[in-house]
Amino acid sequence: AAIEGRIGLRVLLTRDTDENVPPDKRAALADNNKADLFISRHANASVRPAVGGMQVLSLKLDDYAAQMDSTTTPDVPVAVLGGGTRAIEVLPWDTAQVGFTEESSGIATILRRHLAEAGIPLFNPATSRMPLRPLVGVSMPAVLVELGFLTNTADEQALIASDRPQRVIDAVLATIGDVRRGVPAEAAPRPDR
């Protein structure tokens, strides 16, 4: 509601009830609606109750290098309305995010900066790249946000009985504003990450 109300962008939720929506179905919703940004929100947990803080993640490209090498599939002919065919390049589902990993990582860095400026505790490493199933099939910049650890009493309370949700919303809005102006070069991650 804040994104739609304050900046006038259309937001699609992959779910609005407590139901399980498979990652591929979430990705398909975003892809089929030609979304510009995919933000996957989650709550974390740990066997150690002292572990806490938010984390912003993006897809680690190294984990998909083998798939990238095998993506040289021939063009596939498809029927065209009115007759005839046209060749299209097929992008394997599990490599859809590959072309967006650098931009996604830059957006994760920007969001982390806005969260830190808002005084929100961050889990170290707060920004990192990992093999993330919810982001694999998304063909747009995408980040996964862990809102905190439900196994940490302070994080759990901050998610329900504080101003943290509003500060997170403000950080996301600021990040979207930055992204709309273009991901600045200084937000791009270093190659060793």
Key descriptive features of the protein:
4-stranded mixed beta sheet, alpha/beta, 6 strands, 6 helices, 193 residues, elongated, two-stranded antiparallel sheet
Spatial shape: elongated
* Count of DSSP strands: 6
Oligomer: single chain
How would a crystallographer describe the biggest sheet? Answer: 4 strands, mixed
What series of H and E elements makes up the topology? HHEEHEEHEEHH
| Average pLDDT metric | 83
Low-confidence stretches at least 5 residues in length (pLDDT < 50)? none
Helix content: 25-40%
Structural class per helix/strand content? alpha/beta
Q: What is the alpha-carbon Rg in Å?
A: 18 Å
Total helices: the number is 6
Distance between the termini: 34 Å
Across the major sheet, the strand order is 1-6-2-5
Query: How much beta, percentage-wise?
Result: 15-25%
Fold blueprint:
Elements: H1 2-7, H2 23-32, E1 38-44, E2 54-59, H3 65-69, E3 76-79, E4 85-88, H4 101-117, E5 122-130, E6 142-149, H5 153-160, H6 164-180
Parallel strand pairs: 1-6, 2-5
Antiparallel strand pairs: 2-6, 3-4
Helix pairs in contact: 4-6
